[in-house]
Amino acid sequence: MKNIVIIGGGITGLATAFYLQQFANAAIDTTLIESSPRLGGKILTAHQDGFTAECGPDSFITQKPAAITLCQDLGLSDQLIGSSIGKPTYVWNRGDLHPIPEGMMLMAPTMMLPFLRSRLISWRGKLRMGMELLIPRREEEGDESLASFTRRRLGAEALEKIAAPLMAGIFAADPEKLGLQSTFPMFLEMEKQHGSLLRGILKRNRAKARNPVPAGSKPKPSPMFMTLKGGLEQLVEALVARLTREKVLLNTEVVCVNRVLDRYQIDLSDGSRLWADEIVFATPADVTANLVRGMDPVLSFKLRAIRYVSTATVSLAFKRGDLKTPLHGSGFLVPHSAHRRITACSWSSQKFSHRAPEEFELIRVFIGGARAEFLAEQDDAALIQLAREELRAIMGIDAEPVLAKAYRWSKANPQYDVGHGERIAEIERIAAWHPGLHLAGAAYHGAGIPDCISSGMKTAGNIANRLTNPEPVDEPAPLAASVPLKEKTSYDFRRYSNARYHYSPAVPSALGPRLLKESHAGVLGDDPGLRPGLPPLSRRGRF
Ligand SMILES: Cc1cc2nc3c(=O)[nH]c(=O)nc-3n(C[C@H](O)[C@H](O)[C@H](O)COP(=O)(O)OP(=O)(O)OC[C@H]3O[C@@H](n4cnc5c(N)ncnc54)[C@H](O)[C@@H]3O)c2cc1C
Fold first, then answer.
1. What pLDDT, on a 0 to 100 scale, did the predictor assign at position 470?
2. How far apart are CA 137 and CA 382, in angstroms?
């Protein structure tokens, strides 16, 4: 019987446990460890007086199917509800809320008429965006920040009024740092392929016009986001209900993980110790960095390079009659240049049904993020007051809310900075040197709920494969074949990838002979400096 330990009971850890049940043919003993008293991590729904208020995420994007698939697998299909279709999102600009023109593909217009009619972008800004057709494609390969790309191709106004506030809303990110390659690679690809975003869009529109969909067979427009009638925590509850064979430890913090031969030794906050053949870190990257610090300092160092920022949300409910203007839309975004203290606002009860009783509206305000983290760190009363002041200034809401709830998310949003893809590839190369160690979750290949579910599903698949295949499937190939060597760093030993051998002070001595055997087989080759029995390398890579 193989022991599998999953650290972290957020959606990633839960999805891993669930899919492991589905995929594993061999007998397994799974333990899921969660430091807090509840499962779900950042998914947290509050129910009060008929309101369903999301404290963390409120929905998932439908373009990535993993979340919908999981809901279907859990028998929740009839509970899925879509976001309102055709209701605009607004941007706060010069003292007014302006709808984002219909047909915007993030920062690029795909429909001319609504774009030209929009009062959000000035004529000068529109002209500059139109000139995108004439801007030559970038020569350099590789990642680029959202700000640099948008400014270069579409101009400063498109960045300030559309791209940056959207990204602040989705990633809580600073557009000067957010890398396009690991967030919206299609824009880099469009530029590469067509030389211009607008040219790419025009070509696509022309192709569509040449092959029109026959009237009657046109698919109904589908919602961009979905959630569950009872809130996203309904997904967590359904997952938990299925974990009947797994041991679930709540209020139990993993404090340290070490590797001994082929197994992992897991030390818990209550002083007890577990052993695992396969270990899944479904924890934020900075937590994982702490846990593996003793076992693999280089992996820990690389994980720590993934930055996190803090945000806060405030949910306020009002009697519909108390609002001076009826709400029509899904909410609004606030550009950084507007110098306000909130980044966005969701009109939750307009965006989704089942969020507020009749005659009431539920509104959610976002505070903090990469450019104003300090604002998210205030206490509840200050956050609620700030949200009310901003709603008064922007929407003219003076009324007393019938419900007010604030939630702080300290260092909760991973930042996909420029070069994120390369950083993750390197982390995964290092992690692959620890057979049976799996990294999953929002820090690596997408921060949205569908990405986390996919990551859990993929991890479960990898474990199931390793259990059934006598040869571990994620064991790294020999260095020459697998590791493209990059720039030489002060860690000369990186010449040998990340060989565990070299930072062996933290590795129990029992590991020595096996490591050396593996190393000789695959990595160290004939290097005379790397022989069994010799002490570990220094930081400069010399004995
Ligand atoms: C305010 C906010 C709004 C968001 N909105 C959306 C949205 O609308 N749509 C969307 O798709 N995504 C959204 N996201 C992102 C999404 O919610 C997260 O990326 C996702 O929930 C992360 O899930 P996870 O399981 O990877 O991590 P987490 O939810 O962080 O779970 C990790 C778990 O590990 C536990 N843990 C930590 N340390 C230890 C330890 N030492 N030992 C044991 N357990 C430990 C934690 O307690 C936690 O339960 C939002 C995020 C935030 C913060």
1. 55
2. 47
pLDDT beyond 90 at 442: yes
Residue nearest to atom 8 of ligand 1 (CA): 57
Confidence check: pLDDT of 533 > 80: no
The Å distance, Cα 43 to ligand 1 centre, comes to: 7
State the distance from the centre of ligand 1 to the C-alpha of 330, rounded, in angstroms.
24
Amino acid present at 411: K
Please state, as a whole number, how many other Cβ atoms lie within 10 Å of the Cβ of residue 139: 5
User: Per residue in 192-221, pLDDT tens?
Assistant: 999 999 999 999 888 888 887 777 777 777
Question: What is the reported pTM?
Answer: 0.86
Confidence (pLDDT) at 57: 97
- Give the DSSP per-residue string, 128-194: HHHGGGGSPPP-S-S--BHHHHHHHHH-HHHIIIIIHHHHHHHH---TTTBBSTTT-HHHHHHHHHH
Q: What is the pLDDT at residue 311? A: 97
> Which residue type is seen at 335?
P
Q: Which residues pair with 104 in a beta bridge?
A: 109
Average pLDDT, whole number, for the chain?
A: 86
Domains delineated in the chain: 2-41+234-306+418-468 (3.50.50.60), 45-86+308-413 (3.90.660.20), 104-210 (1.10.3110.10), 492-543 (no CATH)
Q: What is the rounded distance in angstroms from the CA atom of residue 252 to the CA atom of residue 188?
A: 44
**Angstrom distance (rounded) from CA 208 to CA 205:** 5
Which residues, 6+ apart, have CB-to-CB distance to 104 below 8 Å? 110, 115, 162
Q: What is the pLDDT of residues 352-368, one digit of tens each?
A: 999 999 999 999 999 99
Ligand 1: does its nearest atom lie under 6 Å from the Cβ of 455?
Answer: no
- Ligand 1: residue of 19, 39, 42 to mutate (most ligand atoms within 8 A of CB) is 42
pLDDT at 104 over 90: no
Q: Closest Cα to residue 454, out of 464, 442, 466?
A: 442
Q: How many CB atoms lie within 10 A of CB 126?
A: 18
* Spatial distance between the Cα atoms of 11 and 15, rounded to a whole number of angstroms: 6
Quote the CA–CA distance of 506 and 503 in Å, as a whole number: 7
Residue 8 CB–ligand 1 contact under 6 Å: yes
* Distance of alpha carbon 374 from alpha carbon 178, whole angstroms: 19
Q: To test the ligand 1 pocket, which listed residue (14, 31, 283) has its Cβ within 8 A of the most ligand atoms?
A: 283
Distance 174 CA to ligand 1 centre (A): 20
Q: Which residues pair with 455 in a beta bridge?
A: none
Rounded distance from Cα 541 to ligand 1 centre (Å): 38
Handedness of CA 233, 236, 240, 246 (dihedral sign): negative
Beta bridge partners of 254: 268
Look-up: residue for tokens 């192709």?
Answer: 207
Distance 410 CA to ligand 1 centre (A): 11
**26 Cα: distance to centroid of ligand 1 (angstroms):** 30
